[in-house]
Amino acid sequence: MNQTIHRILKGQADRFPNKEAIRAPGRTALDYQSLTLQVDSIVERLNTLGIGRGERVAIVLPNGPEMAVAFLAVASCATSAPLNPAYRASEFDFYLSDLNARALMLAEGVNSPAREIAQARGIPILEVTRKPDDAAGVFHLTETSGGTASVASFAGPDDVALVLHTSGTTSRPKIVPLTHRNICTSAFNTATTLQLTEDDCCLNVMPLFHIHGLMAAVLAKLTPFREVAYFQHLTVIHARRNRSA
């Protein structure tokens, strides 16, 4: 499967621009077109700050639409590394060091031990800010330093989109890298099994620093069953053309 998160979002925006993509209680829903524009805006901002493909950005945000969009945006141009906001200072120190994080994404004004650890380690902090009337998932990034991304552009299918740590119950936690090809395939399989359509809504009850929350609630819904069938159809046509050639 030759897909990336951004290609899936762009395909949804082209086919269902006004369909709701993300909802949150008391907030205006974000449609697919607006979601893709928001992701593009954050990608451009990250590239301006010198963050690009292959560089890891730790995300410490509470469950909610901003966390979902932050994951999509970071993964679209760099490597997303979501962390549990409830970690202690010693845990953040280990994970931020082990990840060799290029930056830390944190909600504006949040007094998290991750902020102190990042400052002590000289890791730039990207503050997520939003206005009260912003639609679900719309936010801005604030950071003073700038630069040039080492590899600026959208990620490809074999770029690492997401890194997670094992639980470490038997030894030191280990980093598990997942490429766009990996997670897009999993999202397609989940959407196919559940037969999701563009009219379905998935209620997220899983933490978004966990693979099941990111895959089953976010990516699977953004990859509805009809799109899966569409890409499978294109794959069959492509295979037939190759055989005839």
Q: What would your notes on this structure say?
A:
The chain is an alpha/beta fold. It has eight helices and nine strands. The chain has helices at 5-15, 32-48, 65-77, 89-99, 113-121, 180-194, 211-222, 225-244, and strands spanning 20-22, 30-31, 56-60, 79-82, 103-107, 125-129, 140-142, 160-165, 175-179. Helix 1 runs antiparallel to helix 2, helix 2 (32-48) crosses helix 3 and helix 6 crosses helix 7.
Task: Please write out the topology.
Elements: H1 5-15, E1 20-22, E2 30-31, H2 32-48, E3 56-60, H3 65-77, E4 79-82, H4 89-99, E5 103-107, H5 113-121, E6 125-129, E7 140-142, E8 160-165, E9 175-179, H6 180-194, H7 211-222, H8 225-244
Helix pairs in contact: 1-2, 2-3, 4-5, 6-7
Order of helices and strands: HEEHEHEHEHEEEEHHH
User: How far is it from the N-terminal to the C-terminal residue, by CA?
Assistant: 21 Å
**Measured on Cα atoms, how large is the radius of gyration?**
18 Å
Please count the beta strands (DSSP E, at least 2 residues each): 9
Backbone shape: globular
Number of helices: 8
Mean pLDDT: 88
Low-confidence stretches: 228-238
Biggest pleated-sheet summary: 5 strands, mixed
Helix/sheet category: alpha/beta
Helical residue percent band: 40-55%
Q: For the largest beta sheet, what order do the strands appear in spatially?
A: 4-3-5-6-7
Quaternary structure: single chain
> β content, as a range?
15-25%
